[in-house]
Predict the structure.
Amino acid sequence: MNNTAFIALIGAALIAQPAAAEIGRVKRSAGTAAIERAGAKMTPAVGTQLKTGDVLVTGKDGQISLTFIDDTRFSVGPNSRISVDRFDYDRRNQTGDFLTQVNRGSLAVVSGQIAHSKKDAMRVRTPTSLLGVRGTKFIVEVPK
């Protein structure tokens, strides 16, 4: 394999989003807050990378603000437990699939490219419902 072909192959591999790729970053965190990933707890410092499968947990004084790579923005309120169950995003076509679970607490959302791409591309599940999102701002509250 010549150098040009090798570089093209590496470039293609870097463009593809692996399963554990960064999907967003923490923009702000306050109070008692954590990101649970693969059984470990991390402090959500500014710039912390978010990955599919992460669970966002806040205490009674906690808040976390995030921005995803499709420009979706989350604001997680106090006493919340929210998981990012699925996030697949094709940057070239600005399409994808986004599923979030709000188990308790509150989540304010400004939807990004995924929600604008097709019907039900972004969904938010609660213990009692499944919301399909089409390019909007909204808040979900789930009592304890």
